[in-house]
TrEMBL record:
Pfam families: FTHFS, THF_DHG_CYH, THF_DHG_CYH_C. This is C-1-tetrahydrofolate synthase, cytoplasmic. Keywords: ATP-binding, Hydrolase, Ligase, Multifunctional enzyme, NADP, Nucleotide-binding, One-carbon metabolism, Oxidoreductase. Residues 40-158 form the Tetrahydrofolate dehydrogenase/cyclohydrolase catalytic domain. PROSITE patterns: FTHFS_1, FTHFS_2, THF_DHG_CYH_1, THF_DHG_CYH_2. Signal peptide: none annotated. Homodimer.
Amino acid sequence: MSALYQRFLKVLEKWPADKSKVGRDFEPKPVENMSQAKLISGTQVANEIRESLKQKVADIKKDLPDFNPGLCIVQVGGREDSNVYIRMKIKAAKEIGIEAQHLQLPRTTTEIELLDKINSLNNDPNIHGIIVQMPLDCDTKIDSHKITDAVHPDKDVDGLHTMNEGRVSIGDLSGFMPCTPWGCIELIKRSGIQMAGANAVVLGRSKIVGTPAAELLKWHNATVTVCHSKTKNIEAICRTADILVVGIGVAEMVKCSWIKPGAVVIDCGINVKPDPTKKSGTRLVGDVDFEEAKLVASAITPVPGGVGPMTVAMLMENTVRSATKAAFNLLKKSWELAPLTLRPARPVPSDIVIARSQTPKDISMLAKEIGLLGNEVSLYGNKKAKIALSVMDRLKSRGDGNYVVVAGITPTPLGEGKSTTLIGLVQALCAHKQKNAVACMRQPSQGPTFGIKGGAAGGGYAQVIPMEEFNLHLTGDIHAVTAANNLLAAQLDTRIFHENTQKDQALYDRLVPRIKGDRKFSKIQLRRLQRLGINKTDPDSLTPEEMGKFARLDIDPATIMWERVVDINDRYLRQITVGQSPTEKGFTRTASFSISVASEIMAVLALAQNMEDMKTRLSKMVVAFDRKGNPVTADDLGVTGALTVLLKDALEPNLMQTLEGTPVLVHAGPFANIAHGCSSIVADEIALKLVGSEGFVCTEAGFGSDIGMEKFCNIKCRSSGRNPNAVVLVATVRALKMHGGGAPVTPGAPLNKQYTEENLELLEKGLPNLLQHISNGCSFGLPVIVAINRHSSDTDAEHELIKSAAVKAGAFTAVVCSHWSDGGAGASELADAVIKACENSKNFKLLYDSKMSLLDKMNTIAQKMYGAAKVELTETAQKDLEKLTNAGFGQLPICMSKTSGSLTGDASVKGAPKGFTLTVNSMYVSAGAGFVVAMCGEISKMPGLPTRPCIYDIDLNTETGEIEGLF
């Protein structure tokens, strides 16, 4: 006997004794002038609903071919009666086009384990409906109410969550309604009777049927009475009903004497009754005596074939409704984003004062506004978060936004506001033009922050906030890069030490130890065996020669390219000696430190497209060459898996916001003069999906177009396969005057009056630098929008001169921007220009073919981007070129490492000289990142602190907890 049936009997036992005989002396007769009741076929209505749902699913798939509504039925144990219901639900789902899965858990499942499974389904974007099959058939006690409330309200297609029940109780029918009561309402509608103004009686007050049925009838404007086991005069009350809904759980309890002639009777009961005439010995009956009731009622639902099929149909309706909402969110073109209001002060205060004058949104709110799900956002406090890479899978069928790169002309040492312009542009697009728009930025290094440059959060009223968190630590990505880099460095030197102090057999035995009598290769060791052409998996089967070949990397210390890193400016680490301790037995070597953002691992982080790609790139990183000239990789050192573990969270981009509450993705931070100088591919990819086909992703490229933009196109876009739509080129009157021969611009020193007074002659002499950068953008087939970042001392005449020259040189347009002082409103014209430029921009092309030789690639970049006549290799660089080509790296793109202060390799040369020779001093490979680095001139990978670094001004107010003096 089922637990449900036992409960029915307990209800019956509570019923007053005199009520149990109600109707026995009544002889049923057909109502005068009335035939038998019309049958309301739940089977027929359910079929109609399923056909309608099938069409809805087909309509969704027209717009989203890869989208499938998903339903998961969770069952604990294996009760056969539950299995029958589950099979029925799965069959109905498949007929409609819903992907239904049955998650059957053992009877030993605990409450915690079940809650964990439900939470996992809540977080699965491919599951739109969750059903927990009741009753739970388990060995341990599980609170069923806690379980139903664990299902997220947005996936509670049973409609049993307290929140969904509460919505029904207050008349909010926009959520999921309980399926049986909702099915009853649909059947009443189909009967033709008007619920509005009708007297409705609900017999039973269960959470699943009676109570929600009464609420739904009430909100359909019926006058409702609920009867239960304590109700007096129940028969008389029932006879007042125009609509009688019965869900009391007692077989054939309601007799015809309870029914008002002409009433509509909805029987929700399903009971097993002995019947020797049936092969099974039983038959299903409802809570209403059907044979009697059909003689009195005008319409009645049969059992079976009445409410039962409707329950399943409405369950499917809820599932499709949930899936439709998910599909709508994928197709939705506009965010419901609430911008933050700016109130610009005059004169413009310091950056930190402006940043602290604005209260940021809770980052979870911003995440929801731009279409991220709760499980896709890992909060770091309430102002920053990481975004899960799974977003790309969920949004894979969504269109991609317009892709805009922001670069600059050759800057002064003060910088020309490229990051500020990026933020101002996105504030204008998003907060003022109501376009979906995301800014993608690099994470700043602590080196410049504590050195002389300061942070990189933008400035004035075009900033990322909170600026302190943006510039300090953020979520620890750079620290993860530092740890991973130095782990590899430690393993490299350690391996050299052990190879120098052990013979082959001893080395092999320690690399493949016998543990509890068992000896086996790890996964990474098996990969090394395959690379060596040793097709064996049993460690004991290798010959002595194979053991030596496997165990000994035979690294040539003179070829080591891997440096330790730290994320501060420390000039005394530019050259060091390692191995000085007596324990290292005299195996010393000269080494050096780089700043963390110069690590190849940072470049890998920025260029990886997913976790697997990052792992593959890490494995390929070349740390040195062996004595035979073969590259030695991180995989050879056995460290790939460990590096991936350290960087697992770092691969997720960080979400922050601008002063106007628009989204910013901050991720990775490779320097542009040393590495490729762009934020990450994964950040751009996620942003392009989030903004949708009519949105905009504006991403920065470091320094001038000759460095950052060139590498953005030739390295980053070559790797991602993305085609940018436009380039925004940031220019200032100040920088162009410097290139025209103006006085030196020195940080911390007052500007010469040439820069604060109108000087059209000097400005005109500097225009060739701008024209070269415009030409650079056009070389890639991109429309170039020149953004003139206005300074307070600029004049209209100076701006007009720049605008005229830019358009004449082939720029799409040139506009003046005041975002520093006015926020997004000051970049409104720039936003309009970007929107227009992206409308018909499909001419992007790479500068060179990957099959070209390394020398030809360098010459192409130098000639087209810098205006050089040719590239000249030093003797060292020539040897490097030959070694790298012979090692198979000739197909890789080139990363030119040169000064950002000039189009040439000499930072002191300003303007736009032509026909010069660019000297390449040395070359090395970043095989994991996927490019060859050409060092042009003296480029330090470890900056030094100035005489008076920013450190002097930075302090923590211990009373308020605020950071002081950062900017």
